[in-house]
Specification:
alpha/beta; Dihydrodipicolinate Reductase, domain 2; Rossmann fold; 2 domains; six-stranded parallel beta sheet; 13 helices; 33% helix; globular
Length: 421
């Protein structure tokens, strides 16, 4: 489960010329791919009654997203911790939802069709298995589990279910990540990738009792956590694997010798993921410093692309051919480089008489919001979810192996057979 992270957002005011906008619209159409899984337009179908199990930060973020969506009533919220103040925080977001301390009582509600599982990762397994057995559609936060064995059990059950199962790899449904992906064919054969997640924060939580503190601080313990690679890196590893259309064959990890706050897992790590094509992903994550936030970068002979959640840029090489529209597009400064701003939904904005270069991407709808929405769209239409059980499992294996590499300070192979359900 990955908490919503603060990411540096730079606002720029340069607008695009109308000629460029027209050319941009043409390029949008030229780059149009078949509708990505989970990316179908929101339907005006019947309501899908939902429940959220796990009312920590992530659970409350899901409730907030559901509250902004049409036809997504929340009938129940659930958590084993029943402190009045704790429960009230969730009830404030979903005032019409019934609170239950036992998730099985939620699964017994015939009106509840879709379940969002947002408990700590090591507690996902039984809840998901029981929810699928009860005939519910299930959205399970990523990672599916802290261990590969539990992740496999969840993914196999999700694949066998007659209902929709979506892994919470939220970037798979994110419009900016899907939009940027359409330009990969223009960049030439990718030569490398980088990603990072920097945030100054603590995974140790304050609580009224030592027992509750341990429950809330589960990410810091080896027995219940797959560390920064599992809880954070999994999303970014998955983006690069998705873009490259291949899975890593090995990972080498490095970590700080000592961590803060009594953590049993490292608070600063670096990983080098090796792909069959020879491409490597360099990854860096820390809980000790927030400089430069979070991003994914993929490099090619013609240009590089950087994605920061809801925003993206293309950095052209001087010898790369013109695509046409970029001459007129908005340029944003990043260090010594000028990036060409990528605008998701540019075609839609044009149809509304708006200028994409001035309006930009709608950053108010986070990747989590779009993932929550995509799941409900799949439930309504019966279409393939943005992140299938197999995709969720494969990402889980890569993340756990990366964590193992960081703990050992060595290289861990990822055999192809280990990535199969």
């Amino acid at each position: 489960m990955s908490d919503k992270q603060g990411i540096d957002r730079r606002d720029f005011l340069m607008g695009a010329a109308l000629t460029g906008l027209t050319m941009g619209l043409m390029v949008e159409e030229l780059h149009a791919e078949p509708q990505a899984a989970g990316q179908q337009p929101a339907t005006a179908g019947p309501p899908v009654t939902c429940a959220v199990i796990g009312l920590g930060l992530r659970g409350r973020e899901i409730l907030t997203a559901l509250g902004k969506l049409p036809n997504a009533p929340v009938a129940a919220i659930c958590d084993s911790y029943t402190s009045e103040a704790y429960v009230k925080r969730a009830q404030t977001i979903a005032p019409n939802a019934k609170f239950e301390a036992d998730y099985k009582a939620v699964l017994a509600m015939p009106g509840v069709k879709a379940i969002y599982v947002a408990t700590p990762s090591h507690l996902h397994k039984q809840i998901v298995l029981d929810a699928l057995q009860a005939g519910k559609h299930v959205y399970c936060e990523a990672p599916l589990a802290s261990s590969i064995e539990d992740a496999r059990a969840i993914a196999q059950a999700g694949a066998a279910a007659k209902t929709i199962f979506q892994a919470g790899l939220q970037y798979r449904a994110n419009k900016m990540h899907n939009h940027a992906r359409t330009f990969l064919g223009d960049m030439g054969k990718p030569v490398g990738a980088r990603a990072q997640w920097h945030r100054k924060t603590s995974w140790r939580a304050a609580a009224p009792t030592p027992a509750r503190e341990k429950e809330l601080s589960w990410r810091i313990f080896k027995e219940s956590s797959s560390g920064l690679p599992g809880e954070i890196g999994i999303h970014q590893f998955d983006v690069i694997s998705w873009y490259l259309k291949e899975l890593p064959v090995a990972v080498t990890g490095f970590a700080n010798a000592a961590s803060k706050d009594g953590m049993e897992v490292p608070d600063t790590i670096q990983c080098l993921l090796e792909y069959p094509s020879g491409i490597r992903l360099m990854y860096d994550a820390t809980l000790n410093n927030s400089f430069d936030g979070s991003y994914e970068i993929i490099l090619g002979p013609a240009f590089a692309m950087m994605i920061r959640d809801q925003r993206g840029w293309m950095y052209k090489e001087t010898d790369s051919p013109l695509l046409g529209w970029e001459v007129y597009a908005r340029k944003d400064k990043y260090g010594d480089e000028n990036g060409i701003a990528l605008v998701a939904d540019a075609t839609k904005l044009m149809s509304q008489g708006k200028e994409p270069g001035k309006v930009g991407t709608d950053v108010s709808k986070s990747a989590l919001y779009q993932s929550v929405e995509a799941f409900l769209n799949s439930v309504r239409t019966g279409t393939k979810p943005a992140a299938t059980p197999e995709i969720g499992f494969q990402a889980n294996v890569v993340a756990v192996r990366a964590h193992e590499a960081c703990l050992s300070g060595g290289r861990v192979e990822i055999p192809a057979d280990s990535l199969k359900l």
